[in-house]
Amino acid sequence: MKAHPDQSMRTQPRSRAGRWLTAYPRAIPLAIFLAIAVVTALSVLAIELSEDDIENAQMREAAQSIASSLEGRGNTNSSYLRAGAALFSTVDNVNLPLFRRFVRELRLDTGYRGAEGIGWAEILKPDDVAAFEQRIGAGMSDGMAVQHSGASRPDRLVPVTFLLPGTERNRRAMGYDMYSEPVRRAAMDEAERLVRPTASGPIVLAQEGRGDAPGFLIFMPVFEDGPTSRKLKGFVYSPFNAQTFLESAIDGAALQDLGVRLYDGQVSHDNLLASQEPAQASSATIEQEVSIANRPLTLVVGSANSGNLSSLSIATLIFGLAVASLLMLMARMLTQQAVEDEASLEILEQQNSIRDSLTRELNHRVKNTLANVLSIISLTRRRSENLDQFADDLEARVRAISATHDLLTQSEWGTTPVRSIVEAEVGPYLRSSDSTLKLSGPNVEVAPNDALSLGLAIHELATNAAKFGALSVPGGQINVEWELERDGLAVLKWQETNGPPVSPLRESGFGMELIEKIVAHELKYPVDLRFEEGGVCCILRLAVRRREDFQIRQPD
User: I need a labelling partner for 501 at 20 to 30 A (CA). Which of 162, 215, 358, 459 fits?
Assistant: First the structure.
């Protein structure tokens, strides 16, 4: 047996993707957007991590380069100081010409950036100060005066004796007793103990005047060599402005706007010696230990990145969001189309079902109608005396069936109100007479087949009333009342009044026989038909039905 093409179309399974699109029309586009957004976020994260790795590598390279430069300059200075100590230890008196010749040989003005110069500080006892000031001051235009900054050890003074180059800044330091200041004194004592170049802690250089720019000094002790003992003669030293010292090392490094800070020992705000900060700095830093003249320093190189996304990450983010939005829009359009296609398929399936239902219903109702017509023809033929009467009676009854069919068509073959059926069948007789029709009852609807039978019964009652009853005389009245007898069952009563007297012995005609046989059979309830003296009375029982029980198409 071959399957119907529409049936095969209905039973053909849809793809899984199609089911998902129609089952989740909003979730699918959102899921696609979120998936692309997650991929974009992971891409941006990977780019940022790569940028961080590159930046860390750059910072590490810069830190190593700057640290190497700082240590190189510190070692160079230490070498100069060692050379000076070796030279000055061989002479009885370190005078200005000797010191100038030594500094000139070092050529500090060409390769000694970062230091303020090289100085000589002679060891004095308190009783030697006056002679010292006279001896050294004789060779200077401004003279010499020993200056103290605090409590000095009574048996030792270490004033700045010579300091070259002879700049205005360096001249301000002449005569300053460095041993009277605790930080300098600690560094000199340590250099004396170790007999090697030793850097001091953070200080403000004497030549800075009242400035607060931090700096430090490197001291190298000079001893008098004797056969049995070594006597300290003084210190050859170099003063350093920390900021200038750091900048001299930075000039040779490819910083690419990195931030650089130099600390004395541990990293803290109080230990900050010098810094060069970028326009914006983040928390990403690289620390590098630096040793300058036996003193540990810490170099910190910080990223110039303020925490914002890189240009590549921003471009990736914008592109990813644009692609995600576009795919979400396309998915939304596809899901919308899938939903519309699903609705169209449902409509087609519904229409096919309606067509099948209509075919079956039409076949059933046509058979019922033809059976009623055949019964009417048979009864009409037996009761007709001639062909004209047969034709007229048959035409009237077929018209009654047609009128009820019109009501069924208007209701799309659903349930039909009782009031509409009575008005449709009795109305033509009222227009041609002076009689009245009174209707009363609740809104009761009957099934299509019951509507045809009720219409046929009302037609026969109205025809009989027009010929012999209340509709045949002026002033006649017909009362049609119906009510619910119980749930699902209604009772309709036809009562004629003010018509001609009716004989109880009157023989029932074809119409009454049709009501008692055909109508009662179709309605499945007996018909109570009485010929009372005041007028015909007919009681019918009807099954009350719901409209949705007979609707071919359910409302959207």
Answer: 459
